[in-house]
Amino acid sequence: MYLLCVYRIIGSSCPRLVYAMHSSTLPSLSALQSFEAAARLGSFSKAALERNLTHSAVSRHIQAVEYWCGEILFQRNGPKVDLLPAGQILSQRLGTSLQALRLALNLDALSGAQQPLKVYMLSSLAHNWFIGQLHAFSTACPQISLSLETGYEMVSLPPQSPAVAIRYGHFGRTGLRCHRLWFDHMVVVAAPAWLEQYGEQSEQWPAHQFLRHTHEPWPIRLPKSGLAKASKLPEASGHEFNDALLLVEAASQGCGIAWVRASLVQRFVKAGHLRVLVQAEQMSEKSVWLVCREDMADLPQVRDFCLWAVMAAKKFCVSADLAKDEH
Which chain positions lie within coiled-coil regions (predicted)? Predict the structure, then answer.
């Protein structure tokens, strides 16, 4: 019955398709899901990978939907596919209908049972921000049971699964709903004991004392700001870290000087373990983002977590003197 409602919704929104629909050979729900995935990802191969099917199975599903509609829905361009006008109409309505079906079948939300949610994030964000907010989250959303996974590789959010990611970088990809939590700026920090030995002027800093982050290289020249005057920097040759928080910890232990995100050093600075020498004049081009799949955004646990995280991030921005997203 519910699937029939999906078909009626599609037909009512696509009058130019209704004439050609073959009501006796309705495509399966699996075929419609393959169409939705291919339309969203722009590739039959990616749709097959997401749905754990073979490429030929997805192709057959698409053919079944096209036969039912009596229209060619995709323009094939080698490994890439683009939606034709009829496919665009169908995709717009089908995404909403399938999401409604997922919500209708979300028995955990209806029964009052714990709602599981997977959260992927960088270890540095988990330590520096999220763990400190965990008790407040549990109080605000006691119905959600979190599974937290940290890592450095960009993880694709699994299909048809309640999951979100909190990452640092650039986002805005097709099929994702992205919330910018805060902007960040870069700072130069060092421990007081290190400064006593090497001084506060950048021309006095040895290259082997420049601690490095794998994905945030030192700039060629520092801005004229804080205690250090503007000057060209030597090529950094100090220890390298792929974890930004470990880099900050190393700097706080006097192992060198670091170029890091301001949001990661606030508590070290307040505790007197680090001093900020230089602050970048402009915000970093990267931001901290909360990301979920568009087709899972209205699941209760995903929706409630996102609402809570946006509010928690605003409070963090105020306490850490960071710029939040106003949009």
Answer: none
